[in-house]
Protein backbone atom coordinates (compact mmCIF):
# COMPACT_ATOMS: atom_id res chain seq x y z
CA UNK A 1 0.00 0.00 0.00
CA UNK A 2 1.24 3.47 -0.89
CA UNK A 3 -0.09 6.85 0.20
CA UNK A 4 -2.05 8.58 -2.52
CA UNK A 5 -1.88 11.87 -0.67
CA UNK A 6 1.87 12.43 -0.88
CA UNK A 7 3.24 14.38 -3.84
CA UNK A 8 4.36 11.36 -5.88
CA UNK A 9 1.52 9.21 -4.57
CA UNK A 10 -1.02 11.71 -5.85
CA UNK A 11 0.81 11.80 -9.19
CA UNK A 12 0.21 8.05 -9.40
CA UNK A 13 -3.47 8.54 -8.47
CA UNK A 14 -3.76 11.11 -11.25
CA UNK A 15 -2.12 8.74 -13.73
CA UNK A 16 -4.64 5.99 -12.93
CA UNK A 17 -7.62 8.37 -13.07
CA UNK A 18 -6.62 10.10 -16.31
CA UNK A 19 -5.84 6.86 -18.15
CA UNK A 20 -9.00 5.06 -17.05
CA UNK A 21 -11.34 8.03 -17.63
CA UNK A 22 -9.95 8.67 -21.10
CA UNK A 23 -10.23 5.02 -22.04
CA UNK A 24 -13.80 4.61 -20.77
CA UNK A 25 -14.81 8.06 -22.03
CA UNK A 26 -13.77 7.23 -25.58
CA UNK A 27 -15.55 3.89 -25.34
CA UNK A 28 -18.82 5.54 -24.30
CA UNK A 29 -18.44 8.21 -26.96
CA UNK A 30 -18.05 5.47 -29.59
CA UNK A 31 -21.52 4.19 -28.68
CA UNK A 32 -23.06 7.68 -28.69
CA UNK A 33 -23.23 8.02 -24.89
CA UNK A 34 -21.90 10.92 -22.79
CA UNK A 35 -18.27 10.64 -21.81
CA UNK A 36 -19.06 11.77 -18.27
CA UNK A 37 -20.70 8.40 -17.68
CA UNK A 38 -17.49 6.73 -18.76
CA UNK A 39 -15.61 8.89 -16.29
CA UNK A 40 -17.92 7.91 -13.42
CA UNK A 41 -17.76 4.20 -14.29
CA UNK A 42 -13.97 4.49 -14.47
CA UNK A 43 -14.09 5.72 -10.89
CA UNK A 44 -16.24 2.73 -9.93
CA UNK A 45 -13.75 0.33 -11.49
CA UNK A 46 -10.60 1.80 -9.94
CA UNK A 47 -12.22 2.63 -6.58
CA UNK A 48 -13.51 0.38 -3.79
CA UNK A 49 -17.20 0.24 -4.82
CA UNK A 50 -16.92 -2.91 -6.96
CA UNK A 51 -13.56 -4.64 -6.70
CA UNK A 52 -12.69 -3.36 -3.21
CA UNK A 53 -15.90 -4.36 -1.44
CA UNK A 54 -16.69 -7.43 -3.54
CA UNK A 55 -13.23 -8.80 -4.44
CA UNK A 56 -11.04 -7.39 -1.68
CA UNK A 57 -8.70 -5.44 -3.98
CA UNK A 58 -8.79 -2.04 -5.67
CA UNK A 59 -6.36 0.41 -7.20
CA UNK A 60 -7.48 3.46 -5.18
CA UNK A 61 -9.05 2.98 -1.76
CA UNK A 62 -9.65 4.81 1.48
CA UNK A 63 -7.01 4.76 4.18
CA UNK A 64 -9.42 3.94 7.01
CA UNK A 65 -10.98 0.98 5.21
CA UNK A 66 -7.52 -0.35 4.32
CA UNK A 67 -6.34 -0.14 7.93
CA UNK A 68 -9.50 -1.95 9.05
CA UNK A 69 -8.66 -4.78 6.66
CA UNK A 70 -11.82 -4.41 4.54
CA UNK A 71 -9.76 -4.57 1.33
CA UNK A 72 -6.24 -4.17 -0.04
CA UNK A 73 -5.50 -1.06 -2.11
CA UNK A 74 -2.51 -0.08 -4.20
CA UNK A 75 -2.95 3.60 -3.29
CA UNK A 76 -4.97 5.06 -0.41
CA UNK A 77 -6.47 8.51 0.03
CA UNK A 78 -8.08 10.09 3.10
CA UNK A 79 -11.75 9.34 3.72
CA UNK A 80 -12.33 13.09 3.35
CA UNK A 81 -11.83 12.56 -0.39
CA UNK A 82 -15.47 11.52 -0.57
CA UNK A 83 -17.71 13.62 -2.78
CA UNK A 84 -19.21 15.36 0.23
CA UNK A 85 -15.81 16.58 1.42
CA UNK A 86 -13.43 19.08 -0.14
CA UNK A 87 -11.10 19.73 2.78
CA UNK A 88 -7.64 21.06 2.01
CA UNK A 89 -5.83 18.12 3.64
CA UNK A 90 -6.39 15.84 0.65
CA UNK A 91 -5.34 16.50 -2.92
CA UNK A 92 -8.15 14.54 -4.57
CA UNK A 93 -10.79 16.65 -2.83
CA UNK A 94 -9.04 19.89 -3.80
CA UNK A 95 -8.78 18.85 -7.45
CA UNK A 96 -12.45 17.84 -7.43
CA UNK A 97 -13.51 21.22 -6.07
CA UNK A 98 -11.44 23.08 -8.65
CA UNK A 99 -12.99 20.86 -11.33
CA UNK A 100 -16.52 21.85 -10.26
CA UNK A 101 -15.69 25.56 -10.26
CA UNK A 102 -13.98 25.43 -13.65
CA UNK A 103 -16.89 23.51 -15.19
CA UNK A 104 -19.35 26.18 -14.06
CA UNK A 105 -16.99 29.00 -15.07
CA UNK A 106 -16.70 27.51 -18.55
CA UNK A 107 -20.49 27.22 -18.72
CA UNK A 108 -20.80 30.92 -17.90
CA UNK A 109 -18.19 31.87 -20.51
CA UNK A 110 -20.17 30.01 -23.18
CA UNK A 111 -23.47 31.72 -22.28
CA UNK A 112 -24.63 34.01 -25.06
CA UNK A 113 -26.63 36.80 -23.41
CA UNK A 114 -27.72 38.27 -26.75
CA UNK A 115 -29.10 34.91 -27.84
CA UNK A 116 -31.01 34.57 -24.59
CA UNK A 117 -32.45 38.03 -25.06
CA UNK A 118 -33.49 37.31 -28.65
CA UNK A 119 -35.41 34.12 -27.84
CA UNK A 120 -37.77 36.11 -25.64
CA UNK A 121 -40.62 34.93 -23.49
CA UNK A 122 -41.10 31.44 -24.93
CA UNK A 123 -37.67 30.10 -23.96
CA UNK A 124 -37.94 31.63 -20.47
CA UNK A 125 -41.34 30.07 -19.81
CA UNK A 126 -40.25 26.71 -21.22
CA UNK A 127 -37.28 26.81 -18.83
CA UNK A 128 -39.47 27.77 -15.86
CA UNK A 129 -41.87 24.90 -16.59
CA UNK A 130 -38.89 22.56 -17.00
CA UNK A 131 -37.76 23.50 -13.50
CA UNK A 132 -41.10 23.75 -11.69
CA UNK A 133 -42.76 20.46 -12.67
CA UNK A 134 -39.77 18.12 -12.02
CA UNK A 135 -39.13 19.95 -8.73
CA UNK A 136 -42.71 19.47 -7.54
CA UNK A 137 -42.99 15.86 -8.75
CA UNK A 138 -39.60 14.98 -7.30
CA UNK A 139 -40.51 16.51 -3.95
CA UNK A 140 -43.83 14.64 -3.79
CA UNK A 141 -42.45 11.19 -4.62
CA UNK A 142 -39.50 11.73 -2.26
CA UNK A 143 -41.58 12.46 0.83
CA UNK A 144 -42.68 8.81 1.40
CA UNK A 145 -39.01 7.80 1.34
CA UNK A 146 -37.47 10.67 3.31
CA UNK A 147 -40.29 11.21 5.80
CA UNK A 148 -41.95 14.44 6.90
CA UNK A 149 -39.51 15.46 9.61
CA UNK A 150 -37.60 18.71 9.08
CA UNK A 151 -34.57 16.80 7.77
CA UNK A 152 -36.77 14.63 5.54
CA UNK A 153 -38.47 17.66 4.00
CA UNK A 154 -35.10 19.24 3.22
CA UNK A 155 -33.94 15.97 1.64
CA UNK A 156 -37.09 15.86 -0.48
CA UNK A 157 -36.46 19.42 -1.66
CA UNK A 158 -32.84 18.54 -2.49
CA UNK A 159 -33.95 15.54 -4.55
CA UNK A 160 -36.49 17.63 -6.43
CA UNK A 161 -33.81 20.25 -7.11
CA UNK A 162 -31.52 17.63 -8.67
CA UNK A 163 -34.27 16.74 -11.16
CA UNK A 164 -34.51 20.36 -12.41
CA UNK A 165 -31.19 20.34 -14.29
CA UNK A 166 -31.07 20.05 -18.08
CA UNK A 167 -28.22 19.07 -20.40
CA UNK A 168 -28.15 20.81 -23.76
CA UNK A 169 -25.17 19.04 -25.32
CA UNK A 170 -26.96 15.86 -26.46
CA UNK A 171 -29.86 17.86 -27.87
CA UNK A 172 -27.52 20.23 -29.70
CA UNK A 173 -25.57 17.37 -31.29
CA UNK A 174 -28.79 15.70 -32.51
CA UNK A 175 -30.28 18.97 -33.79
CA UNK A 176 -27.06 19.68 -35.70
CA UNK A 177 -27.11 16.20 -37.21
CA UNK A 178 -30.73 16.69 -38.34
CA UNK A 179 -30.07 20.20 -39.65
CA UNK A 180 -32.54 21.76 -37.17
CA UNK A 181 -30.17 23.69 -34.89
CA UNK A 182 -30.98 27.03 -36.57
CA UNK A 183 -34.73 26.45 -36.68
CA UNK A 184 -37.11 28.48 -34.55
CA UNK A 185 -37.84 25.49 -32.33
CA UNK A 186 -34.18 24.46 -32.16
CA UNK A 187 -33.10 27.93 -31.05
CA UNK A 188 -35.86 27.98 -28.42
CA UNK A 189 -34.79 24.61 -26.99
CA UNK A 190 -31.11 25.57 -26.74
CA UNK A 191 -31.88 28.92 -25.10
CA UNK A 192 -34.42 27.36 -22.73
CA UNK A 193 -31.84 24.76 -21.62
CA UNK A 194 -29.35 27.52 -20.77
CA UNK A 195 -31.97 29.49 -18.82
CA UNK A 196 -33.03 26.24 -17.10
CA UNK A 197 -29.52 25.72 -15.73
CA UNK A 198 -29.32 29.35 -14.58
CA UNK A 199 -32.59 28.95 -12.67
CA UNK A 200 -31.42 25.62 -11.25
CA UNK A 201 -28.19 27.13 -9.94
CA UNK A 202 -30.06 30.03 -8.34
CA UNK A 203 -32.54 27.57 -6.85
CA UNK A 204 -29.66 25.57 -5.38
CA UNK A 205 -28.34 28.70 -3.68
CA UNK A 206 -31.75 29.43 -2.19
CA UNK A 207 -32.26 25.85 -1.01
CA UNK A 208 -28.80 25.61 0.56
CA UNK A 209 -29.19 29.04 2.12
CA UNK A 210 -32.41 28.25 4.00
CA UNK A 211 -31.00 25.07 5.57
CA UNK A 212 -30.55 25.69 9.32
CA UNK A 213 -26.93 26.12 10.40
CA UNK A 214 -25.71 23.72 13.08
CA UNK A 215 -24.37 25.32 16.22
CA UNK A 216 -26.50 28.42 15.63
CA UNK A 217 -26.09 29.53 19.24
CA UNK A 218 -22.35 30.10 18.62
CA UNK A 219 -22.84 32.25 15.52
CA UNK A 220 -22.07 35.94 15.44
CA UNK A 221 -24.82 38.41 14.53
CA UNK A 222 -23.99 38.42 10.81
CA UNK A 223 -23.87 34.62 10.51
CA UNK A 224 -27.10 34.32 12.52
CA UNK A 225 -28.76 36.79 10.15
CA UNK A 226 -27.65 34.77 7.11
CA UNK A 227 -29.02 31.59 8.65
CA UNK A 228 -32.60 32.92 8.67
CA UNK A 229 -34.87 32.52 5.62
CA UNK A 230 -35.35 36.25 5.08
CA UNK A 231 -31.63 36.81 5.67
CA UNK A 232 -30.78 34.16 3.08
CA UNK A 233 -33.02 35.75 0.46
CA UNK A 234 -31.61 39.22 1.18
CA UNK A 235 -28.02 37.95 0.91
CA UNK A 236 -28.78 36.21 -2.40
CA UNK A 237 -30.20 39.43 -3.83
CA UNK A 238 -27.21 41.37 -2.46
CA UNK A 239 -24.79 38.94 -4.07
CA UNK A 240 -26.41 39.28 -7.47
CA UNK A 241 -26.34 43.07 -7.13
CA UNK A 242 -22.67 42.88 -6.16
CA UNK A 243 -21.90 40.48 -9.03
CA UNK A 244 -23.59 42.74 -11.59
CA UNK A 245 -22.05 46.01 -10.31
CA UNK A 246 -18.57 44.51 -9.95
CA UNK A 247 -19.07 42.67 -13.23
CA UNK A 248 -19.78 45.92 -15.08
CA UNK A 249 -16.40 47.29 -13.99
CA UNK A 250 -14.62 43.99 -14.67
CA UNK A 251 -16.17 43.78 -18.13
CA UNK A 252 -14.86 47.26 -19.00
CA UNK A 253 -11.46 46.33 -17.61
CA UNK A 254 -11.21 43.10 -19.59
CA UNK A 255 -12.33 44.83 -22.79
CA UNK A 256 -9.53 47.36 -22.30
CA UNK A 257 -6.98 44.59 -21.66
CA UNK A 258 -8.22 42.64 -24.68
CA UNK A 259 -7.99 45.72 -26.88
CA UNK A 260 -4.46 46.54 -25.75
CA UNK A 261 -3.06 42.99 -25.44
CA UNK A 262 -5.35 40.70 -27.48
CA UNK A 263 -4.93 36.97 -26.99
CA UNK A 264 -2.29 37.21 -24.30
CA UNK A 265 -2.11 34.70 -21.47
CA UNK A 266 -2.74 37.45 -18.94
CA UNK A 267 -6.43 37.47 -19.97
CA UNK A 268 -7.20 33.83 -18.98
CA UNK A 269 -5.00 34.17 -15.87
CA UNK A 270 -6.91 37.24 -14.66
CA UNK A 271 -10.18 35.49 -15.63
CA UNK A 272 -9.35 32.52 -13.42
CA UNK A 273 -8.56 34.89 -10.57
CA UNK A 274 -12.02 36.45 -10.99
CA UNK A 275 -13.63 32.98 -11.09
CA UNK A 276 -12.06 31.84 -7.83
CA UNK A 277 -12.64 35.22 -6.13
CA UNK A 278 -16.33 35.22 -7.08
CA UNK A 279 -16.64 31.63 -5.80
CA UNK A 280 -15.11 32.47 -2.43
CA UNK A 281 -17.10 35.69 -2.02
CA UNK A 282 -20.35 33.90 -2.93
CA UNK A 283 -19.91 31.06 -0.43
CA UNK A 284 -18.10 32.69 2.47
CA UNK A 285 -19.54 36.20 2.55
CA UNK A 286 -23.02 35.97 1.00
CA UNK A 287 -23.80 32.33 1.80
CA UNK A 288 -24.55 31.57 -1.87
CA UNK A 289 -23.36 28.33 -3.53
CA UNK A 290 -19.78 28.73 -4.74
CA UNK A 291 -20.68 27.29 -8.16
CA UNK A 292 -23.12 30.20 -8.59
CA UNK A 293 -20.20 32.58 -8.11
CA UNK A 294 -18.08 30.70 -10.65
CA UNK A 295 -20.93 30.67 -13.15
CA UNK A 296 -21.63 34.40 -12.77
CA UNK A 297 -17.92 35.16 -13.17
CA UNK A 298 -18.07 33.39 -16.53
CA UNK A 299 -21.24 35.27 -17.53
CA UNK A 300 -19.63 38.61 -16.62
CA UNK A 301 -16.58 37.88 -18.78
CA UNK A 302 -18.70 36.50 -21.64
CA UNK A 303 -19.78 40.08 -22.45
CA UNK A 304 -16.42 40.52 -24.23
CA UNK A 305 -16.98 37.86 -26.88
CA UNK A 306 -13.45 37.69 -28.30
CA UNK A 307 -11.77 37.60 -24.89
CA UNK A 308 -14.26 35.03 -23.55
CA UNK A 309 -13.73 32.70 -26.51
CA UNK A 310 -9.95 32.95 -26.09
CA UNK A 311 -10.20 32.45 -22.32
CA UNK A 312 -12.54 29.48 -22.71
CA UNK A 313 -10.18 27.82 -25.18
CA UNK A 314 -7.36 28.07 -22.64
CA UNK A 315 -9.35 27.22 -19.52
CA UNK A 316 -11.03 24.18 -21.04
CA UNK A 317 -7.70 22.57 -21.89
CA UNK A 318 -6.98 22.15 -18.18
CA UNK A 319 -10.62 21.67 -17.19
CA UNK A 320 -11.45 18.78 -19.51
CA UNK A 321 -7.94 17.30 -19.51
CA UNK A 322 -7.36 17.08 -15.77
CA UNK A 323 -9.80 18.66 -13.32
CA UNK A 324 -13.16 17.56 -14.74
CA UNK A 325 -12.12 13.88 -15.15
CA UNK A 326 -10.88 13.89 -11.54
CA UNK A 327 -14.20 15.32 -10.32
CA UNK A 328 -16.31 12.78 -12.20
CA UNK A 329 -14.04 9.86 -11.33
CA UNK A 330 -14.20 10.89 -7.67
CA UNK A 331 -17.98 10.44 -7.83
CA UNK A 332 -17.49 6.80 -8.77
CA UNK A 333 -14.65 6.29 -6.31
CA UNK A 334 -16.36 7.69 -3.26
CA UNK A 335 -20.10 8.18 -3.67
CA UNK A 336 -21.62 5.03 -5.17
CA UNK A 337 -21.67 1.94 -2.98
CA UNK A 338 -23.21 -1.32 -4.20
CA UNK A 339 -22.45 -3.43 -1.14
CA UNK A 340 -25.26 -2.97 1.34
CA UNK A 341 -27.17 -0.55 -0.88
CA UNK A 342 -30.52 0.40 0.58
CA UNK A 343 -33.28 -1.19 -1.58
CA UNK A 344 -35.52 1.79 -0.82
CA UNK A 345 -32.95 4.16 -2.32
CA UNK A 346 -32.77 2.02 -5.46
CA UNK A 347 -36.58 1.94 -5.74
CA UNK A 348 -36.72 5.70 -5.30
CA UNK A 349 -34.01 6.16 -7.93
CA UNK A 350 -36.13 4.29 -10.50
CA UNK A 351 -39.24 6.33 -9.66
CA UNK A 352 -37.27 9.57 -9.69
CA UNK A 353 -35.91 8.82 -13.16
CA UNK A 354 -39.46 8.29 -14.42
CA UNK A 355 -40.87 11.52 -12.96
CA UNK A 356 -37.72 13.38 -13.98
CA UNK A 357 -38.25 12.44 -17.62
CA UNK A 358 -42.02 12.92 -17.55
CA UNK A 359 -41.75 16.27 -15.76
CA UNK A 360 -39.48 17.76 -18.44
CA UNK A 361 -41.51 16.44 -21.38
CA UNK A 362 -44.89 17.41 -19.92
CA UNK A 363 -43.88 20.81 -18.51
CA UNK A 364 -41.82 22.08 -21.44
CA UNK A 365 -44.12 20.52 -24.03
CA UNK A 366 -47.19 22.16 -22.48
CA UNK A 367 -45.62 25.63 -22.73
CA UNK A 368 -44.69 25.02 -26.38
CA UNK A 369 -48.27 23.98 -27.08
CA UNK A 370 -49.59 27.10 -25.35
CA UNK A 371 -47.51 29.20 -27.77
CA UNK A 372 -49.25 27.69 -30.81
CA UNK A 373 -46.73 24.96 -31.63
CA UNK A 374 -48.26 21.77 -32.99
CA UNK A 375 -48.42 18.54 -30.98
CA UNK A 376 -45.35 17.14 -32.71
CA UNK A 377 -43.31 20.32 -32.24
CA UNK A 378 -44.40 20.50 -28.59
CA UNK A 379 -43.25 16.91 -28.05
CA UNK A 380 -39.90 17.79 -29.62
CA UNK A 381 -39.60 20.78 -27.27
CA UNK A 382 -40.27 18.56 -24.26
CA UNK A 383 -37.93 15.75 -25.32
CA UNK A 384 -35.21 18.27 -26.20
CA UNK A 385 -35.17 19.39 -22.55
CA UNK A 386 -35.16 15.87 -21.14
CA UNK A 387 -31.43 15.06 -21.08
CA UNK A 388 -29.32 15.54 -17.93
CA UNK A 389 -25.55 15.95 -17.51
CA UNK A 390 -22.88 17.70 -15.49
CA UNK A 391 -25.10 20.26 -13.75
CA UNK A 392 -27.21 17.46 -12.23
CA UNK A 393 -24.01 15.90 -10.86
CA UNK A 394 -22.77 19.24 -9.55
CA UNK A 395 -26.07 19.93 -7.78
CA UNK A 396 -25.96 16.44 -6.27
CA UNK A 397 -22.42 17.08 -5.03
CA UNK A 398 -23.55 20.34 -3.45
CA UNK A 399 -26.53 18.88 -1.56
CA UNK A 400 -24.49 15.91 -0.31
CA UNK A 401 -21.80 18.25 1.02
CA UNK A 402 -20.88 17.86 4.68
CA UNK A 403 -21.16 21.64 5.05
CA UNK A 404 -24.92 21.02 5.39
CA UNK A 405 -24.28 18.95 8.51
CA UNK A 406 -27.12 16.65 9.51
CA UNK A 407 -29.23 18.01 6.66
CA UNK A 408 -26.82 16.77 3.96
CA UNK A 409 -28.40 14.31 1.55
CA UNK A 410 -26.94 10.79 1.95
CA UNK A 411 -24.41 10.06 -0.81
CA UNK A 412 -26.34 6.84 -1.65
CA UNK A 413 -28.71 8.99 -3.69
CA UNK A 414 -25.96 9.64 -6.23
CA UNK A 415 -27.15 6.42 -7.94
CA UNK A 416 -30.34 8.29 -8.86
CA UNK A 417 -28.40 11.00 -10.69
CA UNK A 418 -26.21 8.50 -12.53
CA UNK A 419 -29.24 6.48 -13.69
CA UNK A 420 -31.04 9.66 -14.74
CA UNK A 421 -28.10 10.77 -16.87
CA UNK A 422 -27.66 7.33 -18.42
CA UNK A 423 -31.32 6.76 -19.33
CA UNK A 424 -32.03 10.32 -20.50
CA UNK A 425 -28.83 10.32 -22.57
CA UNK A 426 -29.94 7.18 -24.40
CA UNK A 427 -33.61 8.12 -24.87
CA UNK A 428 -33.26 11.78 -25.89
CA UNK A 429 -31.49 11.25 -29.26
CA UNK A 430 -33.69 8.25 -30.07
CA UNK A 431 -36.95 10.15 -29.49
CA UNK A 432 -35.73 13.32 -31.22
CA UNK A 433 -34.80 11.41 -34.37
CA UNK A 434 -38.14 9.57 -34.37
CA UNK A 435 -40.09 12.80 -33.89
CA UNK A 436 -38.19 14.64 -36.60
CA UNK A 437 -38.49 11.74 -39.04
CA UNK A 438 -40.64 12.90 -41.97
CA UNK A 439 -43.04 10.64 -43.79
CA UNK A 440 -42.46 10.28 -47.51
CA UNK A 441 -43.97 13.24 -49.34
CA UNK A 442 -44.65 15.15 -46.11
CA UNK A 443 -43.86 18.84 -45.90
CA UNK A 444 -41.34 20.07 -43.29
CA UNK A 445 -42.69 21.30 -39.96
CA UNK A 446 -44.15 24.75 -40.37
CA UNK A 447 -42.73 25.85 -37.07
CA UNK A 448 -39.20 25.22 -38.32
CA UNK A 449 -39.12 28.29 -40.57
CA UNK A 450 -36.77 31.04 -39.41
CA UNK A 451 -36.54 34.54 -40.88
CA UNK A 452 -33.41 34.96 -43.08
CA UNK A 453 -31.90 37.61 -40.84
CA UNK A 454 -32.34 35.38 -37.77
CA UNK A 455 -30.98 32.35 -39.57
CA UNK A 456 -27.76 34.12 -40.50
CA UNK A 457 -27.26 35.23 -36.92
CA UNK A 458 -28.00 31.76 -35.60
CA UNK A 459 -25.64 30.09 -38.07
CA UNK A 460 -22.87 32.19 -36.62
CA UNK A 461 -23.84 31.02 -33.15
CA UNK A 462 -24.03 27.37 -34.19
CA UNK A 463 -20.38 27.41 -35.18
CA UNK A 464 -19.46 28.10 -31.57
CA UNK A 465 -19.19 25.21 -29.08
CA UNK A 466 -22.59 24.29 -27.68
CA UNK A 467 -23.39 25.69 -24.23
CA UNK A 468 -21.81 23.53 -21.54
CA UNK A 469 -20.07 21.47 -24.23
CA UNK A 470 -16.33 20.94 -24.50
CA UNK A 471 -14.59 22.15 -27.71
CA UNK A 472 -14.48 19.50 -30.40
CA UNK A 473 -10.82 18.72 -30.86
CA UNK A 474 -8.91 15.47 -31.11
CA UNK A 475 -7.48 15.93 -27.66
CA UNK A 476 -10.76 17.09 -26.14
CA UNK A 477 -13.66 15.50 -28.04
CA UNK A 478 -17.19 16.56 -27.09
CA UNK A 479 -18.98 14.78 -24.29
CA UNK A 480 -21.79 14.12 -26.79
CA UNK A 481 -24.23 14.14 -23.94
CA UNK A 482 -22.39 15.76 -21.10
CA UNK A 483 -23.90 18.98 -19.82
Largest sheet: 3 strands, parallel
- Return residue spans where pLDDT drops below 50 for at least 5 consecutive residues: 81-87, 446-483
Structural class: mainly alpha
The radius of gyration over CA amounts to 22 Å
Structural description of this entry:
This protein has 483 residues and is an all-alpha fold. It has 19 helices and three strands. The chain has helices at residues 7-30, 35-46, 48-55, 63-67, 91-109, 113-146, 150-162, 169-177, 184-210, 221-226, 229-260, 266-285, 290-301, 305-334, 343-370, 375-384, 390-399, 414-436, 452-462; strands at residues 2-3, 57-62, 72-77. Strands 1-3-2 form a three-stranded parallel β-sheet. The longest helix is centred in the N-terminal third of the chain and has 34 residues, at 113-146. It is globular. The model is unreliable at 81-87 and 446-483 (pLDDT under 50).
Amino acid sequence: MYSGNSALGFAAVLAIILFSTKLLGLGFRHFGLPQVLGYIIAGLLIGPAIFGDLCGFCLIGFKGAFEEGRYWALLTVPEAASLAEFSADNALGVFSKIGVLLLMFSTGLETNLKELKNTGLVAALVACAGVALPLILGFLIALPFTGTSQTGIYHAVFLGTILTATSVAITVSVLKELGKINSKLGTTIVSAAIIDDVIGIILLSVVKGVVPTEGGENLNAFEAFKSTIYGTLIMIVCFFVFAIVAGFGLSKCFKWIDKRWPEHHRIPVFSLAVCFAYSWIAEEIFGVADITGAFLAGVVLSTDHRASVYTDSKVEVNTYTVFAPVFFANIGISSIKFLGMNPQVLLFAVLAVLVGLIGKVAGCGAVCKAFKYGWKESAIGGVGMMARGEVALIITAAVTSSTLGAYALPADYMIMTVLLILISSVLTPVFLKLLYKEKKGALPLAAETVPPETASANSEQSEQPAPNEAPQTDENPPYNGGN
